[in-house]
From TrEMBL:
Lineage summary: Eukaryota, Metazoa, Chordata, Craniata, Vertebrata
Signal as UniProt keyword: yes
Family: Belongs to the HAD-like hydrolase superfamily.
Pfam families: Hydrolase_6 (PF13344)
GO biological process, one term: glycerophospholipid biosynthetic process
GO cellular component annotations of the record: mitochondrion
This protein's name: Haloacid dehalogenase-like hydrolase domain-containing 5
Domain of life of the organism encoding this protein: Eukaryota
Keyword presence, Signal: yes
Alphabetical keyword list: Signal
Length: 390
């Protein structure tokens, strides 16, 4: 993979060695550490440089994935073949929902797959209800599959989209029902139900890479379907109360919160100034890191918090000075392809794969560094930071 020479860090000075970390890593998982269930060889070498002989991390590290179909402790267990890590170091796309406490006591309709009720309850939700439960209580609503045709009374409901479901037609139908009836899916549709009840969505990836040769549909594809069905029926845009998962600023702010918590736990007194986001996807990892870096340049901490949609949570304002994007060539990114351009551009074959609510800016998809793999990424950052741990 061709990659440009590293740009010298503004904080690195020749001849000086940093013994304590003033930086942290945000590692993507799929395409960076593993491909499907298969570890990427460079990951083991990289981890060997990140821990001491006692197995303790030498720098704060958070594993940031857009996956949302399992509990974070399960994801930590899945990574144990590479390195023993704590669930507190794992950030799923839905992890920031812990901070949305104003919804925790309300009824929420959850969509996705995996142990949805366990995930929702682990995040703090007291009254989650799944699509399957709603279908069982309202069987006449699910009419696409005629073999399954033949009452939950829901109020103050919110919709939480954890990830792509298995049966898309059922989830799309019932979510639309809930949105168009203000939480009473047995009632007739009402055009007056706008703005609709709150929708919180996690993981906007249009596609993702597993063992197959080509990328697979991600939750972002399901969201495109939901948004277009809603607009086709109502003529109005589906609105999101919050969007989580990369490239959302909210995700990076919560990841920074976890980084600072690790540094505090290890009594590393030097402030964490730089975050290095290592990923394989230009439209999620690079775009998100660069967007957060731009956000960090805002001068007012209170404005930062309000802009992230966390004004009434316990999450502290962002404190890092910068966020650097490091792109690896072991996943979605193809070094021989051009950077994605928005649809309608003169280069018709390249389209913008980001979410509808994120505008395209060429500067945001330009990585600070491109390296072959995660091992090279760790070497690069240690060099930029003149880092030599005790």
């Amino acid at each position: 993979c061709p990659y440009p020479p590293a740009h010298p860090s503004s904080r690195s000075l020749p001849g000086l060695t940093n013994l304590l970390p003033s930086f942290g890593f945000l590692f993507d998982i799929d395409g960076v550490l593993v491909r499907g269930r298969t570890p990427i060889p460079a990951a083991r070498a990289a981890f060997g440089k990140l821990v001491n002989p006692q197995g303790q991390f030498l720098v704060p590290v958070v594993f940031v994935t857009n996956a949302g179909n399992c509990l974070r402790q399960k994801k930590a267990e899945q990574l144990s073949h590479l390195l023993g890590i704590s669930q507190d170091q794992v950030m799923m796309s839905h992890s920031p929902l812990r901070m949305f406490k104003r919804y925790h006591k309300k009824c929420v309709l959850v969509s996705g797959q995996g142990p949805l009720l366990d995930i929702a309850q682990d995040l703090g939700f007291c009254q989650p209800i799944t699509i399957d439960t709603l279908r069982e209580k309202r069987p006449l609503l699910d009419a696409v599959d005629h073999d399954r045709r033949p009452n939950v009374l829901v109020s103050e409901i919110s919709v939480v989209l954890f990830g792509e479901p298995v049966r898309w037609e059922t989830s799309l139908q019932l979510i639309i029902d809930v949105l168009l009836t203000s939480g009473y899916p047995g009632n007739p549709y009402g055009q007056e139900n706008y703005p609709h009840i709150p929708v919180l969505a996690c993981n906007m990836d249009l596609m993702w890479v597993a063992e197959a040769q080509s990328p697979r549909f991600g939750h972002g594809t399901f969201m495109v379907c939901l948004e277009n069905i809603y607009k086709k029926i109502t003529g109005k845009d589906l609105k999101y109360e919050a969007l989580m998962g990369k490239p959302s600023r909210l995700t990076y702010q919560y990841a920074e919160h976890l980084i600072r918590a690790q540094a505090l736990q290890r009594s590393w007194e030097q402030p964490i100034q730089t975050l290095y986001a290592v990923g394989d996807n230009v439209m999620t990892d690079v775009y998100g890191a660069n967007l957060y870096n731009r956000y960090l340049q805002e001068s007012c901490p209170r404005a930062r918090l309000q802009a992230a949609g966390l004004g009434d949570t316990e999450l502290a304002p962002a404190a890092a000075a910068r966020c650097r994007s490091v792109l690896v060539c072991t996943g979605v990114y193809d070094p021989h392809s051009e950077v994605a351009l928005p649809s309608g551009d003169s280069v018709a074959e390249n389209v913008f794969h980001g979410h509808r609510d994120f505008s395209f800016d060429p500067a945001l998809v330009e990585p600070d560094h491109i390296v072959p793999d995660v091992d090279a990424a760790v070497d690069l950052v240690f060099q930029l930071e003149n880092f030599a741990p005790r």
